[in-house]
Amino acid sequence: MASMSSNDDATDRQLRLFVGLVVVLALGAAGAVVAFTADQLTTPPDFLVVSLIFVAIMVSGWLRVRFRVLSNQDVYTWVDVPVVIGFVLVPAPWVILCWALATTLRRLAMRRGLLKDTWQVAKDTLAGSAAAAVFLALGVDPNSSHPPFAIGATVLALGAIALVDQAAFVPVIAISSGNPLRQVATKNLDVKLVGQLFRLVATLVVLALLAYEANVFLLLLLPMIVACLQLWQTGSMRTREERESWQRLAEATDALNAVDLTQVLHSAVSRAAVIFSAGEAEIDLTTAGTDRVVTGSAGRIRYDGPARTDEPEPTDDELTTDLVAHDGTLRVGMLRLRFGGAIKLTEFEQYKLKTFASALCTAIRNASAYAELERISAQNAHDAAHDALTGLANRRQLYERAGRHFDGQTDDGVVALLLIDLNHFKEINDTLGHAAGDTVLRKVARRLSDSAAPGDMVARLGGDEFAVLLTDLPTPAMAGHRADTLLSSLDAAIEVEGMRITVEAAGGIALAPGSGGVNELMRRADIAMYQAKRAGVQTATYAHAQDTADVSRLVLGGELQRAVAEHEFVVDFQPIVDLGSGEVTAAEALARWHHPEHGYLTPMEFLQTVERSGRLPAFADAVLDQALAASDLWREAGFDLPVAVNVSPRSLLDPSFPETVLARLSRHAVPADRLIFELAETLTLSQLDVVGRALNELSEAGVRLALDDFGTGVTPLSVLSHIPVHQLKIDREFVGNVQTSSEAAAVIRSTVDLARSLHLAVIAEGVESEPQRHALWSLGCEAGQGHLFARPMSAARLLATLQRGTAGRPGTLAASLHDGGAVVRMSRRRSGGSGRSALPHLPA
Ligand code: C2E
Ligand code: CA
Ligand code: CA
Q: Is domain 569-818 classified as CATH 3.40.50.150?
């Protein structure tokens, strides 16, 4: 970072200025001392004593007590002891010279850089000069025959040395570490003072001995004493440091126990800098696949972001540790520590670093795991409340939101619900495929969201059903306007795979009712929507009057349970007839509800309610049971007729359906090929997969399948290849128009052709007249059902009808179209029935 290097430049300049100042002061002070002691320098000193002092200074300088001050290593020596003793024994300039020379030699051997070395020599020279000034001021004469025991001068001189030392040392550390002066100065002050006291005592002891014995060789003892004391002090210093550092490590690992990853990383970086006295610490997660690097020092985060490309090359003042668990597995990244200079960790520090790294690794993993958990639960919460395809709110969320309104937890003002159902969406799905259907749904969702008012909630309830909760309506009447705006947003054609599709929709509006809550609101909007559909208008608003009129679809919902239990569902049968011979070939089961109050209800009136309720399986089973019982009855009587049963696509989506059917068949001992399922073409391609599986299973058992209402839907031919179809039932609409509309005739002809090429049977529905029968027959249609032959009737009545037959031919319901007895058809009946020439048949 640019700012960092400019910071370094500023620091460097400050350091250089300060060192310059120390050098100038040192030169001045040394010069002054020489000037003041000029008279003492005329006689040469005792070179033996000077040499001994030099050796003592040299040795004391090498033996050092190390400790750390913030991020820098502080070193102090016992060098001031021989120095002060020197001032007592020989003229000051010699001592200063000895010290400066010893320091220079030592620094030359270490080579720590010119600036640092210069600073060290200048500092020692300045300190020596200060001590010399004390002795000169107090008039201690080194040339006296007997070394004086100058206690006061010794104390002051040692103090002067210490003061100069600190005055030169503290600013340098403060500048380079960026810490306040005071903090640096007071750091380890107790240790320093105790050390100072020891050195004072040592100095005084030696001086006392010299004063009594006057043997300068005593000086040789000095380094030994110094060495012993130093060993002791180093030991206690280390113990203390270790204790402190364990404490800091414990605090740091405690602080790492956070669930927020950023907090963990930031705290780890600044703690690492403190614990390992590093100028800078960096955590790099990129090696473990997370592009994040955090850099900082004690108390300051300098960088937190993706890995920088201008990352400096590692230098020898950088220490890198893998962040791994204690057992060495699961690496989560790296920890880099950068120091002011070359660094070598002690064994203890290495161990500490490893401990820290593994604690950090655990903390990072915990925080990451927690973050992942949070993400997953947020995702789950979102998924639970949203529709995956469109991203809109789902049914659940809409109910919840509307529920809050009813509970008075929101301040929504007047609220209404608009329920939207797309018309003919199935056709889009069927003809263009599932993906195109999805695109349409997404675009519809988008348009609705875009045109909804700010507080409104747009939701997809499933399939092609959407809902908008309209809130804050200024007046109830505004609901209609808002609904119109929303629905007209769907007017513009939607582009799908290069095609322009117009989507039509019907909307039902209901204002929030006073009671009944969300379910009632939903129910009312549902009624309104169906009214709009039936009336062929875009929107309809719920009105109470119309609701009560709509008994059939709604009130009945609550009665289904009873209907199933009380066997109120009954089945009528309508015969299917061979158009040529008039012979009955099968019968279709048609459900009715024998309602205690409403009387006979037709499927049109109750089927949707059943399908939307949870009672469909029970209903379907009741119908199947009666249908198979009827087939059994007729076969017993000699009419082996297959029975056709209508099946809802919803039943086929139930995975247990085939099993239930096969169980019913075996209970009635009806062969599987005597059962035909009729399935209307209301399947979407997406359902085809599941439905196909069920149908294949049934087909393998022998059950046959008819496609009902063929021609009205847009079943692509591919459907026929997905499911095992045996019959096509041509819809009433075409049959009714077969004589008047050439289009209807064409549909029938092509259906017959298709059926022939696929070896399928074709049955015409709703044959109401003899001319229709003729037309169908000549178009190649083999079978038909309709009022011409018989209306749906009970199984027993159908049996009686079969037994009676037409014109004395049991099992037939119409005269044969074959030429007056020229074609004799063999009956499929087991008993009775002679081929008779057909008489014109008159419908009943
Ligand atoms: P669908 O399968 O098309 O049944 C034929 C419908 O046409 C029957 O109406 C029948 O009464 C009527 N119909 C028969 N001949 C003629 C005719 O000559 N002219 C006219 N105009 N209509 C005729 P229904 O019984 O009301 O059944 C209506 C629909 O309800 C059926 O249509 C079928 O899709 C469904 N359905 C009936 N029973 C069941 C059932 O048990 N389960 C299921 N899932 N659906 C059923
Ligand atoms: Ca049918
Ligand atoms: Ca039909």
A: no
